[in-house]
């Protein structure tokens, strides 16, 4: 998969493993909830070595099994310049780990009967009525209208503007600063609708702004601002108290700084503009990469998925809908990667059925 090279370098790490399987009761005695103590210790030692060798500023690990935390560790400094240790409640920019959350939010409206996955997006966002596709140097009609399923699987034909194609260059020209160039999702979508698609819908998986379009679709279908919908319908019910699009001033001291390796002296250099962007209120709520969260909050989201849509007696998604989210949804003519499929907002291991995704600041989860 191709991503913006400049977004692959930051190194504030969040690693969340949500294990869905139960282990046999005849496991060796040196285990914790069926997990090998030796393996856990080895993982801890490896993470500590990355910090000690200056490869990473910090690492946070959380493993939840059968609804219980069985392993949680933090290593290193959340802010090297301040000599501030990483705590369990540290707040991270999770970037593209926003995508599974946005997909879940949209599917909550599916549960309410607001749409079907194969509905054309133009039925709800008329700005896309006349959107063309760039094919061999000219704009042509879509062979099939891109659908909501296409949006959630990155097969709608959008891109990110990171490559050297004609359509990528149009993205870069129209929005040099990415989506942050716009004041609202509506403004961003209006521009996207005027740019031809890079690929015919359903013909190719390409990482893209399509999940941001899905976030706008949440606004259209619910009649609520996207941030308000997430807060009231998902974060509050699940107790995700530290997840949102900005960090309140009283919590600035919990925010992990993003670092990138200095190519000259190999030291870690803070990327303050990426870290500090969430210290102020935003008006464009990027469902593709705008959220901040803690490892504990994201663990609640992952556990909700494993529970089939509920957490602590609060149901936010139907069980059948969660199965759809976590099942491979790729068109038969399109491939994601070897051994991996793509569900709604995240990848699916075709062998184990595990669902997860990552973020630009070296964050990762699997359920």
Please provide a brief summary of the model.
With 367 residues, this protein is α+β, with helices and mostly antiparallel strands. It has helices at 37-52, 98-111, 148-152, 166-174, 185-194, 210-222, 226-238, 272-276, 295-306, 319-325, and strands at residues 12-19, 31-32, 35-36, 58-65, 68-79, 84-85, 91-93, 133-135, 138-140, 259-261, 268-270, 292-294, 310-311, 314-315, 340-342, 347-349, 355-359, 363-366. It contains 10 helices and 18 strands.
Protein architecture, described:
With 367 residues, this protein is of the alpha+beta class. It has 2 domains: 5-95 and 242-322 and 343-366, Beta-lactamase, CATH 3.40.710.10; 102-222, DD-peptidase/beta-lactamase superfamily (Beta-lactamase), CATH 3.40.710. The protein has 10 helices and 18 strands. The strands form 6 sheets. Strands 6-5-4-1-18-17-16-15 form an 8-stranded mixed β-sheet. A two-stranded antiparallel ribbon has the order 2-3. A hairpin with a 5-residue loop joins strand 16 (347-349) and strand 17. The longest helix is centred in the N-terminal third of the chain and has 16 residues, at 37-52. The model is unreliable at 1-27 (pLDDT under 50).
């Amino acid at each position: 998969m191709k991503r913006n090279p400049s977004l692959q370098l930051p190194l504030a790490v969040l690693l969340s493993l949500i294990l869905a399987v139960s282990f046999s009761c005849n496991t060796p005695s040196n285990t914790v909830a069926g997990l090998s103590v030796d393996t856990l210790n080895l993982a801890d030692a490896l993470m500590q070595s990355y910090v000690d060798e200056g490869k990473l500023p910090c690492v946070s690990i959380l493993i939840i099994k059968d609804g219980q935390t069985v392993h949680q560790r933090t290593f290193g400094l959340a802010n090297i310049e301040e000599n501030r240790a990483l705590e369990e409640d540290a707040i991270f920019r999770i970037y593209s780990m926003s995508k599974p959350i946005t997909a879940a939010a949209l599917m909550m409206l599916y549960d309410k009967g607001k749409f079907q996955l194969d509905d054309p997006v133009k039925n709800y966002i008329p700005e896309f009525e006349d959107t063309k596709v760039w094919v061999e140097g000219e704009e042509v009609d879509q062979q099939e209208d891109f659908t909501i399923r296409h949006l959630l699987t990155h097969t709608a034909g959008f891109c990110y503007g990171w490559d050297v194609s004609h359509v990528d260059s149009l993205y870069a020209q129209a929005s040099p600063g990415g989506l942050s160039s716009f004041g609202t999702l509506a403004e961003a979508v209006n521009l996207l609708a005027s740019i031809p698609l890079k690929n015919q819908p359903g013909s190719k998986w390409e990482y893209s702004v399509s999940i941001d379009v899905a976030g706008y679709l949440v606004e259209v279908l619910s009649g609520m601002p996207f941030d308000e919908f997430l807060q009231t319908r998902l974060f509050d019910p699940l107790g995700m108290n530290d997840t949102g699009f900005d960090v309140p001033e009283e919590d600035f001291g919990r925010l992990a700084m993003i670092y990138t390796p200095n190519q000259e002296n190999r030291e870690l250099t803070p990327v303050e503009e990426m870290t500090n962007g969430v210290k102020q209120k935003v008006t464009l709520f990027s469902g593709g990469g705008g959220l901040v969260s803690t490892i504990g909050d994201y663990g609640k989201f992952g556990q909700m998925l494993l529970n089939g849509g509920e957490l602590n007696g609060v149901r936010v998604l139907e069980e059948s809908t969660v199965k759809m989210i976590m099942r491979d949804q790729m068109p038969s003519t399109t491939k994601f990667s070897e051994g991996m499929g793509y569900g709604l907002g995240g990848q699916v291991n075709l062998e184990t059925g595990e669902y997860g995704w990552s973020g630009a600041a070296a964050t990762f989860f699997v359920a």
